Amino acid sequence: MRLQSSLLLAAALVSCVGTENSVHSEDVNGKEYASRRFGELGTINKKLNKKLENASVEIDGFLVNRNESSAHRTIEIIKEYISSREEFIEQILILKTNAPHLRNLSFLDESRWNKELNQTKKELSKLEQVLKLYQMLLKLNETSEIANDVIKLFKLEGKGRHLESAIKLTEELVQEITSFIQEVSVVQNFIISQNLTEVITSIWIEQLLDIQYLENLLKNKTEDLRALQRTKIPVVINIYIRPSLFVFIFVVGLAENGVLITIFARYHKIRKYRNMIILNLSIADTLSLIINLPVTQLYESVSSWNVSPVTAQIFMFCRFLCFGLSVFSASALCLQRFSTTLKLSVRSGFIIRQSTKHDSIILISAVWMLSIAFAIPHSLYGCIYFEECFNTNVELNSKIANDLFLIDLIGLSLIPVVVITILYWFTVRHLKRRALRLPADLPEHQKAYQRKILSRSKNIMTLTPIVFAVTSLPYYFYVTIDSFMGSDINSLSYTIIKGALYCLIFVNCSFNPAALYFTSGTFRRYVRMHFFWCRRKSDKRIKQKQTQRVLPGEEDNTMDTAL
Fold first, then answer.
1. How far apart are CA 322 and CA 320, in angstroms?
2. Where is the G-protein coupled receptors family 1 profile domain (predicted)?
3. Which fold does the domain 272-546 belong to in CATH?
4. Mean per-residue pLDDT of the chain
């Protein structure tokens, strides 16, 4: 605070006190009274100027060190000074009234003191307003720091309650910045109107009064608030809608595959060697549902937590082992259907036909070994799927992640789609030829029955590669492109697209048992007998079919051609 004018006044008072001996009164008592009062006023003025000096020292502490205590002490001192100076001016008026001959002394010029007092009041008002702004700024910074901490916590844990707190704190921050700008505008107008730009000033006070900076800050925080509000919908989807879809898919898929596994466990007639690959596929789908739905939901919730490298490796190995088992078992089943339907076992080798225990073990073992080999790279670099480990070397880990996503796209989607499509195309073509080559001596109702079975199998086999392509290709294409291009994981589009495509992957886990149910009369009959309590009705249908003529081996191969 610049109080030079006040200090100059103090020097003037000292010189004025020296003129005390020049006062003349009409009588001795009047002269003594005037001299005594004049001296008292000089002493009072010295004390007042001492207060101004103390105020100058205190305000330097506020301007240099931003010490609020110094500002408060300065305000108290100046308020006392103003009160004393007002009494001082009143004493001057009394003295001039009682000693008219002293009215021409500059020391007793009350207009001079009033002018200095008004300037001091203006400076005090600026100081109070600046202090108020500074206190508002401290509160604003505190709110901003708390909001930033909550936002970081939300980004780490992704919990809805953290998002609600972040939105609420950011709204408060925007309101505080708006109020702060209004206060700064009022202070700026006051300073300019009262010509106080050169008093009580420093670099940080100039920054405090910088409205342009505050407006930019308000704009940024408003954008942050809108981004958080947009994030609220994805969070609701991740917390409520996506888990609900996972639960639905998990329950349906687990129930269907559980029925299939139960049928295999309960009825010995179905446990034929050529049907073991169907059981293996059902087990693989069940494991995939268990690992890649509830556990993955947990992983998405805690992926930013601290995990040991061993835990990360075990988890990612199990996750991609289940993916591989489901995909490669479906491909192996397609190969088996192709071999069984076309009867190429003699020309193409024993491993294709799968009609013996030895051959089934070899094919299932091959599926497991291939799945293990596929899961090993993901296990070795499993730690990069967790944020803390990924951030240790972002550039290297990004390249590794891109390579792994590319392997997933090729190994779990592109190649299986091509293999399944080609093999099922040949199988369907042979089923069409087979439907046209039914024995001529077969009764018409038997021909219609055989054509119905073959047509149903043909339709399911035509639909299977389409379903597999629609459910697997979009997800792996999206995550691969996203790994190279990058996107905001909290955006609405990312949440909806990835969540929907991820759910599509597990449609296959529910599609395979359903397809078997609609195409295999044997499986459908056992399901009804075991789960729908239709044993008597089914027994009657069995007796009726035993009287009918069927193609040799057709009923036994129903489950072979089901999927």
1. 5
2. 256-516
3. Rhopdopsin 7-helix transmembrane proteins (1.20.1070)
4. 78
